[in-house]
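Quick one - first record:
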Amino acid sequence: MSMFGIHPIATIGVLMEVVTPLYDIMTPLSVGIVLITGALATASVSTYGVTVTITSININQNPYRITLNNMPFTLVYGMVGVLLAYFLLNSETLLIHL
């Protein structure tokens, strides 16, 4: 959504209100890891963000080209965050049942 001009912090602000009832089912640690890695991952692909804009000015490239070059990193970084949160969620569930 950052490619369309929606700021990641605004998205997190909206999601926090929606996710709050899920704290009874999921641990806040897992939710926090997913939110943080998701917000950090969008910083490298936000076409109108500070990081991409400064990089495009310094190397004289189109911001969309930089976004496309950064997309594989963003997908891997986001996936690692989701998997880490998933494994933490499952390990805490296993500990509770033991």
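second record:
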Amino acid sequence: MSRLLHTSDWHLGASLYRHSREEDFDAVLAEIAAIARESEPDLIVHSGDLFHSFRPGARDLLRAMRALDELAGIAPTVVIAGNHDSPAYFEFLNLVSGPSWGRGLYFIDRFRPGREGGVLTFDACGGQRMRLAVMPFVHPNQFWQRSTPSATASADYAQGMRELQADLMQTLHDGYDPGRDVLLFAAHVYVAGAKPAKSERGVDTDDAFATAPGDLPVVSYAALGHIHAPQPVNGVPSAVTARYAGSPLQMDFGEHKDIKSVVVVDADPGRPVRALPRPLTSGRRLAYFEGTLDLLRADAHTFEGMFLKAAITDEEDGSLLTRKVAEIVPGAILVDAAPVREATAESVLTGDPAEEPDLPDAFLAYLTQSGLSETTAHSTAATFARLLGEMDDEEPSPVPAQELLRAALDNLWEKAS
């Protein structure tokens, strides 16, 4: 029997309303390593968003490498780049810490065809082999067609993803031994129908650029990243098990009820897998409270050691509210305390008050409020989010106008002659 440990979306470097999460990351990474030592997997897969930003700080790089080096000492460990990760950083990390150093650590920086590094093979227990197809985050702009220069069509994206996955599947089946091989797929992708945890950027979970669950490759197990809520994926091809491992920590208050986990997957060739989520309990939990000060006082003991966001219903003046709440719950880490006010007609943002909206979502809400059509608003917001995410990227995704200009320049002398 082969065994896989699936983890994802660490987002090292993320903070919570300017509160450091370093203590929580250290605790949960130690817990993941303990689960790996106890479960003794043949392979460990991290399905993307190792870091929270394209240019992680030195402390976050050190934290990542210490944790991954410990995992690689237990089993070969493969980390694919997510939309928050820099391909250039991953290329560098693979150069200085990858398989050429014999450490069993693999950083997959960008999509490669199956025969050019897109499929990896690992020995497992009982003479079995685990064959893993890897698909780091693929930006929709990669599938832009010059026939439609105004925008990247969702149909182009869906077809492009099917073609990339078909290439990986062809390589997976090259030399495939049904009595020995376990086929696996790791991808950082949004699958339609998955339930976001609310800490993802809204434009990253737009159905216009979603992969249909029925389009996922026919493998024993698909290890998915990108969605922070741990969950199985429904509607996949028969005999396929696909799961989001989710983030190991609650990333924002919209997740205060979520139970985080890693996934231990047992597989035998030609048989359905057993995918067992292992809950993660380390790291301080998030709590959202709405009610009166008296009710908060009665429940104060339940918030001990937690990050707390409080919405108080019986206070009009918020000038001293933070101090009052802090005195009631001295054992909590108070992130925010504010009186509950009725929504006004001028309100732009909607949604769970426990969420902290990010800039792309706020901009999308503004565009929608301004009267733009849904298609135009989402297209504009998606472009805005891409620009934000690629300000520090050494190799930004192509822009349609830029591609047209490049094509014209490439053909300039040929046409002149």
